[in-house]
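Why should sequence recovery work at all? Because a backbone constrains its sequence more than one might expect. Tight turns favour small or flexible residues, buried strands favour hydrophobic ones, and helices have their own preferences. The token representation captures these environments compactly. In the example below, the structure is given first.
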């Protein structure tokens, strides 16, 4: 996951269980063996966790120190379309 973030981030260990729980709830446990997701769901968990860990404030942020300015616009606002299409393959839906 640090390869996705481009740096070490201590929040990664905290956000993975949160996103895993959200994915398990969304699919109602399908695609999981206990708390271990299959490969497709693990990819969803990885990408969503990277977004959540990348910007812990969960809002658009612009920091400026001297002449160096950083801006974070990406944060977790729910599942992306690609993530949701994978999750929907496992979600139990009413008929």
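From this structural description, the recovered sequence reads:
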């Amino acid at each position: 996951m640090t390869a996705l973030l481009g740096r070490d981030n201590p929040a990664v260990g905290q956000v993975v269980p949160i996103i895993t729980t959200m994915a398990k709830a969304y699919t109602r446990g399908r695609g999981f063996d206990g708390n271990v997701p299959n490969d497709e769901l693990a990819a969803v968990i990885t990408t969503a966790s990277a977004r959540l860990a990348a910007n812990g404030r969960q809002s658009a942020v612009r920091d400026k120190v001297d002449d160096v300015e950083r801006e974070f616009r990406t944060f977790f606002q729910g599942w992306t379309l690609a993530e949701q299409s994978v999750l929907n393959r496992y979600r139990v839906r009413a008929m």
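A few observations help interpret the result. The radius of gyration is 15 Å.
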